[in-house]
Amino acid sequence: MPDESEALDAYSRVVTQVAESVSPSVVQIHVEMEPRPGGQRNSGSGSGFIFTPDGFILTNSHVVHGAGKISVRTLDSGEFSAQLIGEDPDTDLALLRVDAPALRAVRLGDSRKIRVGQLVVAIGNPYGFQYTVTAGVVSALGRSLRSQSGRSIEDVIQTDAALNPGNSGGPLVNSSSEVIGVNTATILPAQGLCFAISINTAQFIATRLIRDGVVRRGYIGVQAQTAPINRTIARYHDLKAQTGALVLSVEAAAPAGKAGLREGDVIIALEGDTVEGIDVLHQLLNETRIGLWTNLTILRGSHKLHLKVLPELRKS
Fold first, then answer.
1. Which of 85, 86, 142, 273 gives the lowest tally of CB atoms within 10 Å of its CB?
2. Which DSSP string corresponds to 224-286?
3. Which one of the listed residues 62, 155, 265, 282 is annotated catalytic?
4. Distance, CA of 240 to CA of 292 (rounded, Å)
């Protein structure tokens, strides 16, 4: 059995390797807000990370919302002016772009493979202290968090890796140096209650912002979270996935309520496409489904049922 010093050395090596690998892809974001009536111009800062080698950067919507001027400082290349490509306040995500040389993009992980208790590292710029590294574990999965737009962000990762103002928009990274989340919030004055948007959700939002600059969504009126499916039931119905989207609540007057969806149902497919969790459900409920009758496959107890739902355009 390794002694305590050997175990600590192994832990330290992982954190060090992750920090050295990912820090060159983390950026400090400085924002000057549009002047308010009276001429006062406020400023702020946050974090982000290089999403693609051609200069796209992911951060939080609340970091850059209302910005008149945005600048980005990289570890290797210096400071550059950044363009806001688009933002999605519903998920507190935004996409910037910079024209800078020698950019190093992060490697992306799969947030569906995260397990409670696994080691995670957060990198950011709290209070202006550049490239600060904190480490902890995944405390819980499938949390919901209220965004500044008032909407509920689903499938949020809870961690005890310390976050502070300025960490917002930085990466949450696993022990393989893969980004698995976008750090977004901490509950003050509580300690160890920090949250990140899953990278699977962030990837979907980023692709829509790159393409359209905005995110249009189909709406059915449910709150849900990713949850495991009973193995016996999964085998009985020969399901492709071991997880689905567990319905936590249904708005009676919304499309899902009219279709007969109930609290406790598990959505496992939409128009034949497997729904492995809430992030996949959000991806499938895109603008192409608005106003079209759509087949929902659900588990209700041990029974597999099919419902017809008519998604609406989600109002801002």
1. 273
2. EEEEEPPHHHHHHTT-S-SEEEEEEEE-TTSHHHHHT--TT-EEEEETTEE--SHHHHHHHSB
3. 62
4. 25
Q: Does the annotation count 88 as an active-site position?
A: no
Identity of the amino acid at 292:
L
Chunk the chain into consecutive blocks of 10 residues (it has 316) and report each block's average pLDDT, rounded to whole numbers. 67 91 93 73 86 95 90 86 92 94 92 93 78 91 76 84 84 96 76 87 93 88 91 94 94 95 96 90 87 96 96 81
Indicate if 155 belongs to the active site: no
Q: 180: closest CA among 137, 149, 145?
A: 137
Which is catalytic among the residues 168, 177, 198, 279?
168
Which tokens in the block code for residue 218? 């189909």
- CATH topology assigned to domain 107-212: Thrombin, subunit H (2.40.10)
Catalytic: 62?
yes
CATH 2.40.10.10 fits 4-98, yes or no: yes
Options 25, 61, 90, 92, the catalytic residue? 92
